[in-house]
Design a protein that fits this description.
Keywords: Repeat, Signal. With 312 residues, the chain is an all-beta fold. It is built from no helices and 28 strands. The strands form six sheets. Strands 4, 6, 7, 10, 11, 13, 16 and 17 form an eight-stranded mixed sheet that branches.
Length: 312
């Protein structure tokens, strides 16, 4: 039995005192934890469940805090309290739910508290990516959670490993996959999977490999032609570049259209301009212009007509 006694002097001139004693048994047993909170990691999207048990003389009040701020019942947070236990549940965890959680219990006889650190394991979404044939592309994402964290990369469900073709890195929770010398076969879905003691999480994105776009260029330019009036004449040149390529012809800056005496074509990367019969009015400078979405190129040459064709 513990007694708290206080001596009260009723008068400075009297030696008699009054002894007031209180039996602390009337306060009951203080609130103390039997099972305390512990640190844990949770996979993003899974439920966070914090539970503690305690003992002491009722009534016992239970208070929850996160990073020092009070937590109350809400649509995102469920709090359940009984005479001997307290439970806090967050059904659909996010990165923002990470932090230090505190549970405090108290009654008239005393108080107790315990803490647990919650870490969320997750992977931030990859972005859809485009790459050019022959080039390199880098896929990047962020991972978070309690270390150690291991990261694996997959292409259409098959795991890829570091080497000449693929290079993987994980630095300060930033992970990346570099794909070198892109081919059409490299197109597909790439996934990043992060794993720790809490579980695993993954994100995916589609990689599209496109042909490298090139402006038109001439593999063979036009050449000057010297011919006799009346004979047929053909200009031709070689053109390369990303399709579609449009080809046009002009003479002395004036556009040429197909007609009864003139024919143009662009087949197998060869552009041609043909006159079935010539006269002196056709002499001049001819230009072939090739265009696509990337750029334009041109080549020019002269047609020189001399004499007259004599038919006997």
């Amino acid at each position: 039995i513990t007694l708290i006694c206080v001596c009260v002097f009723t008068s400075l001139c009297m030696s008699r005192t009054t002894l007031i004693c209180e039996d602390t048994r009337s306060r009951g047993k203080p609130a103390t934890f039997v099972k305390k909170l512990s640190d844990s990691s949770v996979e993003q999207g899974k439920s966070i469940l914090l539970e503690s048990t305690y003992k002491g003389t009722p009534p016992i009040s239970v208070t929850w805090k996160k990073n020092g701020f009070h937590i109350t019942q809400s649509p995102r947070c469920s709090i359940t309290t009984t005479e001997k236990s307290g439970m806090l549940e967050i059904p659909n965890s996010t990165k923002e739910d990470e932090g230090e959680y505190t549970c405090e219990v108290a009654n008239d006889a005393g108080a107790d508290m315990c803490q647990g650190q919650i870490s969320i394991l997750g992977v931030l979404q990859l972005k859809e990516t485009n790459g050019l044939l022959g080039s390199s592309v880098v896929l990047e994402c962020k991972v978070y959670g309690s270390p150690p964290i291991s990261v694996s990369w997959f292409h259409d469900g098959y795991e890829v490993t570091s080497g000449d073709k693929y290079q993987t890195t994980l630095t300060d929770n930033a992970c990346s996959l570099k794909v070198n010398s892109l081919k059409e076969s490299d197109m597909g879905t790439y996934s990043c999977t992060a794993t720790n003691v809490a579980g695993s999480d993954e994100c995916s994105a589609y990689l599209t490999v496109r042909e490298r776009k090139l402006p038109p260029s001439f593999t063979r330019t036009l050449r000057d032609i010297h011919e006799t009036v009346g004979l047929p004449v053909t200009f031709d040149c070689g053109i390369t570049g990303s399709e579609p390529i449009e080809v046009s012809w002009s003479k002395d800056g004036v556009h040429i259209q197909d007609g009864y005496n003139v024919q143009t074509s662009f087949l197998n990367n060869v552009a041609t301009l043909q006159f079935l019969q010539t006269d002196k009015s056709l002499a001049g400078q001819y230009t072939c212009t090739a265009s696509n979405a990337i750029g334009t190129a041109s080549s020019s040459a002269s047609l020189v007509l001399t004499g007259w064709l004599v038919i006997k």
